[in-house]
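Batch queue: ligand-bound targets. Current item pairs a single chain with zinc ion. No template structures supplied; prediction is de novo from sequence plus SMILES. Inputs echoed for audit trail.
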Amino acid sequence: MFGKKRGGVVELVDATVSDNHDLDDGENRLDLVWAAEDQMRFGEMLVSEGRATIEQVQAALWEASVNGKSLGNILVKQSVLRNRDLIDLQERFDSAQISTNIQFNVPIEDVGFLHQEKVAVFGMSPTTVYLACLGDQRKVERHFSAAFPNKTLEFLAVRPQMVDAFLQRTDKLPARVETPSSGNVDKRIEIVRYVPRGTSDADVLDILVNLAGLRGGSDIHIEPKAESYTVLLRINRIRRIIHEGPLRQFAALRAQVKERARMDQMEYRKPQDGGYSQEIMGRMFDLRVATFPLNAGMEKIVIRLLDPDKASRPLSDLGISKTHDWNAACGYPHGLVIVAGKTNSGKSTTLISSLREQDRIGKSIYTIEDPIEHRVDFITQMSVNRADTVRLDCQAATRAMMRGDPEIILIGEIRDRETAQAAVQAAESGHLVFSTLHAGTVRETVNRLRHFDIDDATLRPMLRGVLAQRLIRTLCDFCRGAGCGPCMMTGYNNMTVVSEMGFFPSEDHFRRMMDDEVFWEPMVSDALRKLELGITDEKEIHRVFRSEIEYLNTDYPGVAELAARVKAVVKGTAKSMVDLEPRRQMTDDDHKRLATAAELDRSLGALGVRKMIVSPEYDTVANAYGD
Ligand SMILES: [Zn+2]
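Prediction returned. Tokens below.
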């Protein structure tokens, strides 16, 4: 028994972490007992602050009892906490906890220096960089103070083994090797080599992937040419060259990628897709790989990195106006719930957030995805394989799933009669089924289902809710559309959802909809409200609803009003009704953060890849939503 509740106070007791009999010496044993108690107190804090439930903390302690990792790291892996929140929580609880992480969010330029002075870097909060050092501490202080002038350094006391473990993990980090130059060489044409000469072919892939993960890159493009190949990395939407290698190395790299992504090695005439997961300095990334046939048996390879932290946004953060209705629809024990939208409307993010917030431990949840984008612990995720060799189609996967004692089922996308039938059958047999559909509105979603031969009599008793959504960009708090540093001159600094939510608590609601009644707030009203609240501006609404506005599409009630208002502003005949006064002045802290970012940007070189070190508020839009 792990926990008991006594008068509202949660006690976590007898964690098996402290119950390990395989330990060889008393000192280690004490360490572990201490760690366990400490982590349990951390768990109590999380529960009392509502950051995790008792069940979630218990599940993490169970896992810790086997793999010996820290509670915080496991809760991040189990998508209970977000990585970016973990250090802040630990900092408040007891900064010594931070040494239990190798929770890497600190850009490292000089791996050689770390080895030389035996330094481990545990993480970075808005104010502090946490590290440990077995070498010359003053030298290390100078080095890191120069790299992070606005941060305090805190040296944590750790056992030497932890520093060694850290350094071992840096072995496959990209090195930054500079050719010694005579000093007056123009920095702008400097070439920064991240993959050192003489690196064995087998290590190139890991170096590239680590580099992308550490620098916040989203895609790696590997492009063979006639006599060599080029690797480009996309960071903040811009591609930069990070490596050039011989074709022999490309062949080795391609074989390695295909093997890991479980692709057909011999097939180079057809595009393929696959994926795998990889740990990058303590965090699991999901990688999606796609290949494209070129001339002469060559292929281009694209690796997309999916950052789990960006996918774990809580549902309440996504901008869905009718969260209450959505949660009500998701709370039924059985029925059909659909998220509708076009490509890149954030559907998967909404769905995975909804599933993550279900009781993943108490209920058994299965998904069928194509492909699996983000792995979530305690959810059984099956990937439908379209490769010719192993054919697992959606129907076969659904049949298999039914034997696995499911309660909640996600069928990735309803795209044809077969998947529609599979979803309906699962809902009819007493399961709660989630799915997505390519449609613009609630009504269009229902029409598409009927088009897939699902009749009204079948749909009426089972349809619980349809959320139709799109993504719009939100105005930057500082410049309100004018463009400034934090928003990278775009005027917008994030994305949010514009949606309509059809909730069908009874069959009568379904009938009313079929009688052409719209009893939910239409999407256009939500867009107008987001304009009135100054969350976005007319230009952005015009961009997102362009075709509906131009054709006054009557599937979108209220579109005429929206068109009149938005078109006039875009044409310049009316002034924006959005309050464009800055919402927030830059504080000293913001200025400092920006200055650090700019400084780092410069120090990382003009041609090399760069990473903006920015606070969560400045999070760039790229990859915030996957779809
Ligand atoms: Zn701005």
